[in-house]
Design a protein that fits this description.
GO terms for molecular function: DNA-binding transcription factor activity; sequence-specific DNA binding. Pfam families: HTH_18. InterPro entries: Homeodomain-like_sf (IPR009057), HTH_AraC (IPR018060), RmlC_Cupin_sf (IPR011051). This is Transcriptional regulator, AraC family. Keywords: DNA-binding, Transcription, Transcription regulation. With 266 residues, the protein is α+β, with helices and mostly antiparallel strands. It has 2 domains: 139 residues, Jelly Rolls (Sandwich), CATH 2.60.120; 104 residues, Orthogonal Bundle (Arc Repressor Mutant, subunit A). Helix content is 45%, strand content 23%. The chain is built from 9 helices and 7 strands; from the N terminus they run βββββββααααααααα. Strands 1, 2, 3, 4, 5, 6 and 7 form a 7-stranded antiparallel beta sheet that branches. Helix 1 runs antiparallel to helix 2. The two termini are 21 Å apart.
């Protein structure tokens, strides 16, 4: 696997933060099999090979001619990798509001090898036109990704749901109440919950709790923070309130979950 990625901006292109790896490979002895996460998005195109890829506890096969999108902050790990090759695009979160899509198979999969080749060649150039060419190539790549991962133009209701989830990503640690998000979106809490339920089958309150529990599981797996500090980071007034919510949402206590997670990675 590639080494640690440091996203840097290019001379004359201060709004471009991304890295392209056109010869990306994964092999068993190099793959980090323990859970880890990054502060940037990763778009991994699998050209060939096999293995498993787990993102936030959901595991799927690494199949040829598929796209994997790992958003900033998601926990992921690889297992049983054999001769996996392809291309990797790393993006600053500000460049693209990514939608997680594990092992998604694009309809126009034949275009992706060509797209990576264009991105990689422009990335490697050292000319005055490089920043413009990079911007145009990256714009094309992101537009194609959006088409593949979220086909169709959203209506007004789904647009508000998308804005709700974007706000949730920004404020879930401090804002646990549906009323806050409804006020930001200029609707009533009941209206917001109805639209979120129509979109995903669950209420806005459930979405907030689900996001909190996801982050709690990440912190319990990836850090050694005591439970009371995890509770504090997630905006709970005390460890007891957090532990009760965690047990209700996950089915086990925070300490029990940490113990089980430790056993899984031994």
């Amino acid at each position: 696997m590639t080494g640690a990625v440091t996203l840097q901006h290019f001379a004359g292109a201060h709004d471009i933060f991304f890295e392209v790896f056109g010869g990306f490979t994964l092999s068993g002895h190099e793959v980090q099999a323990r859970p880890h996460r990054h502060a940037y998005h990763e778009v991994l195109w699998i050209g060939g090979g096999s293995g498993q890829h787990s993102v936030d506890g959901v595991c799927a096969e690494l199949a040829p001619q598929t796209l994997n999108v790992i958003t900033a902050g998601q926990t992921h790990e690889f297992h049983g990798v054999q001769n996996v090759s392809g291309a990797l695009l790393c993006l600053e979160p500000g460049l693209w509001r990514a939608t997680p899509s594990l092992c998604h198979t694009p309809v126009d999969w034949a275009i992706w090898p060509l797209l990576w080749q264009v991105l990689g060649s422009e990335y490697a150039r050292s000319t005055q036109q490089r920043s413009h060419a990079l911007r145009e190539s990256l714009t094309l790549a992101l537009r194609l990704l959006e088409r593949e991962l979220a086909p169709g133009a959203p209506g007004r209701e789904t647009s508000r749901v998308a804005r709700f989830h974007a706000l949730l990503e920004q404020h879930f640690r401090l804002q646990h109440d549906v009323g806050f998000y409804a006020s930001q979106l200029h609707c009533t809490p009941d209206q917001l919950s109805r639209e979120v339920r129509n979109s995903g089958g669950h209420s806005a309150k459930h979405a907030i709790q689900e996001r909190l529990m996801l982050e709690a599981q990440r912190l319990l797996r990836l850090s050694s923070l005591p439970v009371d500090q995890v509770a504090e980071q997630l905006g709970y007034r005390d460890a007891f309130t957090f532990s009760r919510a965690f047990r209700h949402g996950v089915g086990v206590s925070p300490r029990g979950f940490r113990h089980l997670s430790s056993d899984d990675t031994d």
